[in-house]
Amino acid sequence: MRPALWIAEIIIFAALYFTITFLLAPISFLPFQVRVSDALIMLSVIFGLPAVYGVSLGCLFANLFPVGYPPNPLDIVFGSLANLAASYTVYRICYSRLSRLRVILSSLLSSLIITLIVGSYLPILVLPSLSLWDMVWVGYIGVLPGELIAQSIIGSAMVLALARVPKFREYFRQKS
């Protein structure tokens, strides 16, 4: 792939991620969240590394400019790294090997990766004192349902639908 096209795809994914997160800010931030923009992580299946880097960069910008509270270095760094790890995992499992089972399993694993990383630091950001129960309830149980909705339902459905479109199938074959 030409470098200019690759960079353009990264910028498009970053802009999409940031825009969706910003427009849906009331449900994209804080402990109990459904970050719908995380559905874009699943597009690593079709678009490969530009999607991986784009959603990570988009997450970095979304966490740099959160709505309703000041940016937090923990969220900026670890949120972006969580997206990078999750989208790269999806890419490694599914890229050039598209199947319904791989898409669903990678979405579950990706959701778990983000839940473990973000859920581990999120309670520290929002709670003045912290217990193990707070970590489990606010951190993990607060993040996992939203990630499952975003990635396993919306993201997987989006990938499986796009895989049926002839133009995307052709694009997918060219990239693999």
Structure write-up:
The chain contains eight helices and no strands. The protein is mainly α. The protein has one domain: Arp2/3 complex 21 kDa subunit ARPC3. Helix 1 crosses helix 4 (49-64). It starts with a helix and ends with a helix.
Descriptive terms for the model:
8 helices, 77% helix, 176 residues, mainly alpha, Arp2/3 complex 21 kDa subunit ARPC3
Question: What is this entry, summarized?
Answer:
With 176 residues, the chain is mainly alpha-helical. Helices cover 77% and strands 0% of the residues.
Amount of helix: over 70%
Please, what is the oligomeric state?
Answer: single chain
Distance between the termini: 11 Å
Biggest sheet, open or closed, and with what strands and sense? Answer: none
Tally of separate helices: 8
Order of helix and strand elements from N to C terminus: HHHHHHHH
**How many domain regions?**
1
Overall pLDDT metric: 91
Q: What is the CATH third-level topology name?
A: Arp2/3 complex 21 kDa subunit ARPC3
| The CATH C-level class name | Mainly Alpha
Q: How many whole angstroms does the radius of gyration measure?
A: 16 Å
The stretches of 5 or more residues where confidence is low (pLDDT under 50) are none
How many strand elements? Answer: 0
Q: Which CATH architecture? A: Orthogonal Bundle
